[in-house]
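One thing: could you explain this record?
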Amino acid sequence: MFPKNAWYVACSANEIDDKPLGRKICGESLVLYRALGGKATALEDFCPHRGAPLSLGRVIEGKLVCGYHGLEMGCDGKTVAMPGQRVRGFPAIRNFPVIERYGFVWVWPGDPALADAAKLHHLEWAESPEWAYGGGLFHIHCDYRLMVDNLMDLTHETYVHSTSIGQKEIDETPTTTKVDGDTVVTSRFMENISAPPFWRMALRGNHLADDVPVDRWQICRFTPPSHVMIEVGVAHAGKGGYNADPAHKVSSIVVDFITPETETSHWYFWGMARNFQPQDKALTAAIREGQGKIFSEDLEMLESQQRNLLTHPTRNLLKLNIDSGGVQSRRVLDRLMAQEGIGTEAVVV
């Protein structure tokens, strides 16, 4: 239930510094490691000798060595050597196209002939010293599309995140949703309101008053296969809102890379990129801690939602105007999966 001809985040770059990492991506079991020269490599997590997971092995001088009987694998998926044995005639296992960029390792789980580095999104904030980034990883037991729904409709903040970023004005302010090709954008702009606790902290971090009215914005942007970037921020009221001079606002991009594992689980790479006080490491740590607590609240809700949906698979769910961003994002996914010849029966629409 996921497009495979696309680039997905498999891990952060530092997750494979010392040893191999096993991770399932779009139903494919992979082992990720660094070959000679530090090149990020992804192979099928299956030793051709006896079927042991290669992720339980070791990396020795850039070679992936099976932890069961010592079979050495090349980064092309071909067997290289084994103590006292002739193994070069073994059939190769699958290797997956890989790009290491922006601090992440990206894999293409689909047809390798279609893998195109130009299709990887350009992330300007990840290359600029004027931006700081901090984030983390959650393993969540729910359909990845439920997370897309969650991020494309932030109305839930009023209820799930009432002590951090939620406020009643989110409910009271309508959204607009636009579709441009495969990109879906849902926007909400709130004027002359009080900043919630998380944003008061951010204002103080940028040496701005936190006890005055603000204008707040949320611009959620979905791009396939399952990435959501959310422009968020507040500015002192009357200073231009989203377009205010940086001297009067704090703004960030909530970074969400959602990588399906199975039909009912996914890897959620979350973070926040900001372009104010980028040199302040303590502020980066504080924002990361606050954001981590916020997203952990989503985790409990989403996993409970998934259990309910599996218990009641035939129940019809309501569709409201606040769901437009998620609905349009699912239509993009359905179209891409249809192009790949993948069935699109949904767990929830």
